[in-house]
What we know:
The complex is a heterodimer of chains A (about 110) and B (about 110).
Chain A: E1 4-7, E2 10-13, E3 19-25, E4 32-38, E5 44-51, E6 57-58, E7 67-73, E8 76-81, E9 90-96, E10 104-105, E11 109-113
Parallel strand pairs in A: 2-11
Antiparallel strand pairs in A: 1-3, 3-8, 4-5, 4-9, 5-6, 7-8, 9-10, 9-11
Chain B: E1 4-7, E2 10-14, E3 19-25, E4 32-37, E5 43-49, E6 55-58, E7 61-66, E8 71-76, E9 85-91, E10 100-101, E11 105-110
Parallel strand pairs in B: 2-11
Antiparallel strand pairs in B: 1-3, 3-8, 4-5, 4-9, 6-7, 7-8, 9-10, 9-11
Amino acid sequence: GAVVSQHPSWVICKSGTSVKIECRSLDFQATTMFWYRQFPKQSLMLMATSNEGSKATYEQGVEKDKFLINHASLTLSTLTVTSAHPEDSSFYICSAGGRDSPLHFGNGTRLTVT
Amino acid sequence: ELKVEQNPLFLSMQEGKNYTIYCNYSTTSDRLYWYRQDPGKSLESLFVLLSNGAVKQEGRLMASLDTKARLSTLHITAAVHDLSATYFCAVEPKGTYKYIFGTGTRLKVLA
């Protein structure tokens, strides 16, 4: 079945630094991928829609200059958290899928900003 | 504002008992998904409901969709400890390809 790989699984960084998270579709091409954020014991919040070859579409309230999304190929989307702060600490999950099949989710990246 | 609400938010139940989790949403949609999440893990797809009246069953879980009432249910039959997890419904608003997640239901099955 379709697999979405996310890397790294967890990362610790210092305030002010940037972190890049990769999301790859392993056995299918994904023109669209989605990035979610989940705070502890809360639901998943859609951050942005990543579109291959074009700009990402951000949800209301999500800072596009802080969360940079690049979808340069049909199998790879990246999310870069720029100038990270402790409040950016969260679980970030990407997803991708075909039009008539459910989205498949990556294993998530736990980001801790110290 | 689009809302996807689950009820209850927390559920503690004895093994062997039955219970239903409800998912109400406020937009037009005929696509609804149920996922399971274990602590510290990502999401596991449980059910895909793509039309009004759809019913799917897998083991002790059964999901249904009523698009007119904008309601989906996840029924648990004879619960076992292994079902302890957080369950999310996700709605795909008509005309979009986005999933909007429900508030989640944390289920704990007591032995």
